[in-house]
Amino acid sequence: MSEVKPFTNTDEQLMTLEQRGMLIEPDFGQRWLANVGYYRLSGYWYPYRVLRQGHRLDEFDEGTTFADVAALYEFDRKLRTLVHDAVERIEISLRAHLNQHLGFVDPLSYLDPSNFRSGFDHSRWLQTTLRRVDRARNRSEAITHHDANYGGSLPIWVLTEVLDFADVSKLYEALPSKMQWSIAEEMGIVVELSALSKNQAQKAIKLHPLVRWFEHLAVIRNTSAHHARLWNQTFTPAGTAGLRTDPRLESLPVGQSERAYGALTVMGALLCAASPGSTWLTKVARLVDTSFEGLHGRSAREMGFPAGWRSDPFWSGRTE
User: Fold this and answer.
1) pTM
2) Which of 5, 70, 212, 251 is spaced 20 to 30 Å from 268 by Cα?
């Protein structure tokens, strides 16, 4: 096994970057390396390293500046902030619709496995859920109230307040397909079965396409929450055939989506219902236009944005 790389201070790190061809204003570079760190920033200067025969060399492309790297980092940070804002509203909307549908069946319907589709590991989901409740018990007046007055039985609308997006997305997946479809349409996603092949339509009827997209968004939400890179990452693919039948979502890639563009597009569509009048799409488009597209060596295609995306009415704000 190789030895762990030796520690280097910021002066040594600056010297290394300069020797590899990066143009750096010393004071500027020192501040960034001291407050963000060499290792974290290395993910942002990686695409500026010379690519030769499929391998990245240590040397940088000619003209690469530390200022470009810092600007890319700032763009990614702002994009994560916008993603967090969108997913928060989508998550709250999904909770509300689950509360309405499951609460109508029974306030404690989540305790009965017969209310969910076969194959759903209800016992495991419930164990995770009850652990969430235990952790929240000391800081939740609602749980304390139900402990004192209802023997600890929590109705679905109290329970979902302590669940995270992954938990509620799994709960949505566990619903009977008819309920999945009702919630999807209430959240503004309309799939035209007649526009799908017979096989695609059969699959969509059994499991709404939005199920996989909620899983996809949960991963992206966690990526953003843990301050990981977002702009150039690939994520677990989500199928696009069903959602592409919505005219707003025709720009989704054919087959499946795994880059940031697909997630941003679907989030924008969901926000149209979850937060009417939202300017979120316009903010994302402006951020890409002003803080990313002008960067040396970078293109929105790296995030999966298609050619001509800016003239799409969906992204221009003309659909709001």
Assistant:
1) 0.93
2) 70
